[in-house]
Design goal:
Blueprint: E1 6-11, H1 17-31, E2 35-40, H2 47-51, H3 54-62, H4 71-76, E3 79-85, H5 93-99, H6 103-107, E4 115-122, H7 129-143, E5 146-147, H8 157-160, E6 167-169, H9 179-204
Parallel strand pairs: 1-2, 1-3, 3-4, 4-5, 4-6
Helix pairs in contact: 1-9
Length: 207
């Protein structure tokens, strides 16, 4: 019987690109045999700002039934896959706000020894994909987490070209998520599940 694995996919999305990737990532992890929780970071922007952008307003409506992430989801998870669009080369305030609530779990060691990975989207090809994921991963070092990134471990990674994590160029929300990004999400999710299972089994055996 394979070692059970709990994966939390925790994301923030405004116009829906990252939400689409998050859903695909969750489905791929589930197909790889994990128990999965798909969770969104709470919105901080005022309703007027959301309503001013039709894509943002539509995504808010479409994802309203997805539970907001809580610290309990982090405790439950053996692996956490974070997703955020870039904001000036960093993650969004909404996702950062959630991470900033985890001080108690960090102090008690409950964020350590878990697997972490990340994905992102940008408006342009050089709009901050790598810096956003590297900024996120700096946080994981403080957690004592174990980074599992896709690297160039699959032929498809030489096509999408990002070893740090799944990423998508979305323009102004008008470039939909396509097969290249969905393939990257599958490769990353399967790799996260694979290594989380191996690490968890090794720790259980005392190795």
């Amino acid at each position: 019987m394979p070692t059970p694995v709990n994966v939390a996919v925790v994301y923030y999305s405004s116009t829906g690109t990252v939400a689409t990737i998050a859903k695909a990532m969750a489905e791929d992890a589930e197909r790889a045999g994990a128990q999965v929780r798909l969770r969104r970071a709470a919105e901080l922007a005022p309703q007027a700002a959301i309503d001013s952008n039709p894509a943002w307003a539509e995504n808010a409506r479409a994802t309203a039934d997805i539970p907001e992430v809580s610290p309990d989801d982090m405790v439950w998870a053996d692996a956490v896959i974070f997703g955020s669009p870039t904001r000036y080369g960093n993650i969004t305030a909404q996702l950062k706000q959630f991470i900033d609530t985890l001080g108690g779990l960090w102090q008690s060691g409950q964020l350590a020894d878990k697997v972490y990975s990340g994905f992102t989207s940008t408006a342009t090809a050089h709009g901050g994909q790598e810096s956003t994921l590297l900024a996120l991963y700096n946080t994981i070092h403080h957690f004592g987490g174990i980074l599992v990134t896709p690297g160039y471990t699959d032929p498809s990674k030489f096509v999408d070209g990002n070893p740090y994590g799944t990423s998508h160029v979305g323009g102004q929300g008008d470039i939909p998520v396509g097969e290249q990004t969905l393939t990257a999400a599958r490769v990353q999710a399967e790799r996260v599940v694979k290594f989380t299972r191996a690490i968890k089994a090794g720790l259980a055996d005392g190795n």
